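Re: your question from the hallway

Yes, I did run it. Sequences:
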Amino acid sequence: MTIAIEPIAFVRNSRKDPIDDHWGEIVSEVELAEGVPGESLDGIDSFSHVEIIYYFHRSEKTVTGSEHPRENPAWPRVGIFAQRKKDRPNHVGTAFANLVRREGRKLVVANLDAIDGTPVIDIKPVMAEYLPKGKVSEPLWTSELMAHYW
Amino acid sequence: MTIAIEPIAFVRNSRKDPIDDHWGEIVSEVELAEGVPGESLDGIDSFSHVEIIYYFHRSEKTVTGSEHPRENPAWPRVGIFAQRKKDRPNHVGTAFANLVRREGRKLVVANLDAIDGTPVIDIKPVMAEYLPKGKVSEPLWTSELMAHYW
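Structure:
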């Protein structure tokens, strides 16, 4: 079974190459692809945040088993589905971006960790009822890995 | 540009047909697809929650413009990217599930709003640093829509 996905938008920003950290300073535009009606964004500005599902188009390999996050042996070797590395089966990323404003066929967003040219698979409004239920807990290595991410 | 996606797992649960509400009572298994190594899940049980990206395989239409959520005229007509309806371009859904336990090549999860047989595109661990930054706000209609969802 193969699922065929057509990008519905593309990311535009100042980050041209995959870099791991300091995403908080990047402001991005998410512009609808040709053929997608602008009406598809109507009402989105009544939400503070949008979920962006995107394709890691610059990933050049696929890890299917386990690996050290960022290839750093100081962190435990874990399965690809226990980390968020881009080199994963299907190369799909997700992010919760702050919606700054809508401008016609574009969304201006902050806190989107996707580089310039990234194909967008979907945009969803963030509803509090869809966020994790109960306390979120995670291992210690993730806080070291995320220390300079934003 | 077409992106080819191969399911990495499938959902198994008691909900055989698409129904909108009362997902909170459903416990699901997410079982790795043939060919995906079990090692890909190693370390996942040190996280409380997993993000499941999946394919709405029973959606039979695609809305590209705007529509009333759940076709209910009491709620405003909004663009497909301002709502989470399954009948959307690319038919991709996302959920934050509570990880109950890992059993070899299976995850047992709660609060996954996907029916039996749903193809899974990706599994990611939930890290607090990836959750929305700042207060999440949304329009009034979403709280009515979500009243019986879980």
